[in-house]
């Protein structure tokens, strides 16, 4: 602990001279915190993805690559009114049926009725993956269990950021669900940049991982680039990802990721 305190003091001293942002301090503190106590349950089918999508708006993507059903709903400190969607955590348990090995999950849903300071309502798949061989059902049948968790970077190999256009979008209104962000995983700001423009339009956080804005297609034409800012102030511009002739209900995959 003395070493960690000394490291934090040294880092803060450097920030005073290099004008570091507070988000970097927050990220550093999170990395030093290590595993913390939480509560876990599971919901949905024993070998399923919890729900077919959930409150983050990822729909059936939760059961497909790269999530592969390793997902979780979270209570208020994890879900953060939707701004926690996409964040990744390692969760582990040390009870009789548990292997003690951590499982990495992505927050894809909300659990408003979950109790405890931090509560993961895991998919059946994720809960079972924490168990020793042959003990998955025994672990799932225990109900509320004590676990340890820590925030970790999201790593989606061979996958780039994708934008799913909401079916309710039209020529004057664009709403997109943002998926598969490496690193921080969650977003604090989404901006739309029309073609041949340097002026961005700040999109509104609608729910979960869905962001929207009104557009004037004659003055703000496609293709649209989208600029993403994460919780810890990492930034990524996805160029021309929403093409000319875009369609509601379509998913547009990019060529980039954090």
UniProtKB/TrEMBL annotation:
Residues 53-159 form the Expansin-like EG45 domain. Residues 172-254 form the Expansin-like CBD domain. One of its GO terms (biological process) is anatomical structure morphogenesis. PROSITE patterns: EXPANSIN_CBD, EXPANSIN_EG45. It is found in: Secreted. Residues 1-22 form the signal peptide. It comes from the Eukaryota. Keywords: Secreted, Signal. One of its GO terms (cellular component) is extracellular region. It holds the Pfam family DPBB_1. Belongs to the expansin family. This is Expansin-B11-like. It comes from Nicotiana sylvestris (Wood tobacco). The gene is LOC104230875.
